[in-house]
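Two proteins follow. First one:
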Amino acid sequence: MINVRKVWRSFGFAGQGIVALFRYENNARVHLLIAGLVLLAGCWLHLSLVEWSILLTQIGLVWAAEAFNTAIEKLCDFVSPGLHPQIKAIKDLSSGAVLILAIAAVVVGLLILGSKLLAIFGIHIIS
């Protein structure tokens, strides 16, 4: 049997994590700002459902990656407060994963939003 109270409590903890991510992590706030701009551009360009689905998935993936990266960095700082080459490598790999996903999201955004913007100016690319 599912304990609904425990489920709701878990959602509360997850919500606290999301709030903390955007409240305390500068990079997450940068991603939030860019996502807001992308959403405004999407509204202005009248994206299709498929285009919205793709962009929202990219935004969610970047935010999730940023949350994982933050969790890994906080765990590393807790386990090894001093400088350690292995901890540095772990943190670099974790932030590198976010960068890879963010670059992919930018490319996807440029493909979707860029093609719409070019079409406004009468320039059509191969679709």
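Second one, unrelated to the first:
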Amino acid sequence: MEMSQIRYVLAAARHLNFTKAAAECNVSQPALTKGVKALEDELGAPVFHREGRRILLSDFGRSMLPHLQHIVDEAAATQVLAQNFRLLEKVPLRLGVMSTIGHIRLARFLAQFEKNHSGLELSVSEQSPAELKNNLSEGDIDAAVMTLTDEIADTFRTHPLYDERYVVVFPPEHRLGRLNAVTLDALSGENYVDRLSCEMREMVMAVCADKEVELYARFRSEREDWVQAMVLAGIGFAFMPEYSVTLPGLIQRPLVEPAVERRIALVTVPGRKFSPAMDALMRAANGFAWPG
């Protein structure tokens, strides 16, 4: 069954005349008649009754028309989707972002990207590192923005975007806010707001234990907004990536001795071919002026 044969049958059904149908399809009448007959032979029953120059739809043909029309409609829709995909129009791009990444700088990049690719449909979902790794592997997202670790580098294809240091965040008027930078030792015994969702939390806690720095967690939360709100309310200080601090009024100072930083990367699955939309995102990431 060929698409041209289906179109011949539909045109003949509209005109009930092979000559007019051939003119609509821009083919000769013998070619159209031959195509209609070939389709009837394949279906095993006549679509038309021939009465001299006149043709009429058979009952079988009348029952087949909706199905044949559906085939043509689906083919046309597929061609539109393929064209849109090539032109990056209405092409879905699914991006997962680690929940601890500050949204302001990333939003600037995504806003510029969408401005330059207005027909592209971008969806962004906030996920944990474990969810990002699973959804990347399963193909549920096209790329992830997350902290680059040795495990990620060994498993996925990575494209570093920027580095950011960890800072200490204080409420207004905190005595340590007068310092230009804060050492870990200076924080021993201070009230502390614990960021449970921090992917580097275990490493920071291990350093504190090694240096015998005692931290007293007054509040714990997996939500970045709650952590910042409780620091601002005076509950205690928090360790945060510098680009994640968004609440006005907070004091932030670099953490030194030891300094802690992380590298943020765009992560994809190795060996998986980029779609045109994903390829456009990679080019945009290469050309963007990331912080630092």
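SUMMARY FIELD: The chain has three domains: 3-86, 91-157+266-287, 163-263. The longest strand covers residues 157-170.
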